[in-house]
Amino acid sequence: xxxxxxxxxxxxxxxxxxxxxxxxxxxxxxxxxxxxxxxxxxxxxxxxxxxxxxxxxxxxxxxxxxxxxxxxxxxxxxxxxxxxxxxxxxxxxxxxxxxxxxxxxxxxxxxxxxxxxxxxxxxxxxxxxxxxxxxxxxxxxxxxxxxxxxxxxxxxxxxxxxxxxxxxxxxxxxxxxxxxxxxxxxxxxxxxxxxxxxxxxxxxxxxxxxxxxxxxxxxxxxxxxxxxxxxxxxxxxxxxxxxxxxxxxxxxxxxxxxxxxxx
Length: 263
Known about the structure:
Helix content is 73%, strand content 0%. By secondary structure, it is mainly α.
């Protein structure tokens, strides 16, 4: 394994251990323990929540649109673009990525009663997020793919639909991208983690590195067996850790949803 995959595997094992502990521990105990380790986590001071669905009227004039776009230029806007740039490198299939983006926007609409960050205007969902952030990130990411992966024949495998296994991998990518994005927001809300806390970007980096190795393992395993070597015929440690992490996060999310319904 390369040094990046080794570090990502070690970090993933530590994160999975923390997730397992959180699953087996009452939520309030987890929050209080994290607060003792880092006072920024679990701060119950009343906050003024930001809602993006208050003024949803949109004027189709150049000045109004330019003012709207300038108002969106912040760190979150930039991180949104970078996130989708990374997704394009991890899984360079434009159709899978577009479907994943649409699915996540619908997830935001469905969950906006539970998560304040999901309360957005229609134009924020579909113009700012989907067209601008997702679009810019995907275009730049796909342009960078040839410089990251120089084997053009290998990259064509991401568009293969010749076997049921290929369709399964595409569906898993759509589901995985959307699920991991929703997890990020629920984790922040569940354990009262501030948006500016280092946990958020560190988790995204970990997901990106593990997702990259998992995607390449799937490519060699399912799409390019003729080109594979023994190294790629078996699932490597980063892939196992990535699947374990998704599973543990999903269990934690389901418990949180059960707590929502029990309120």
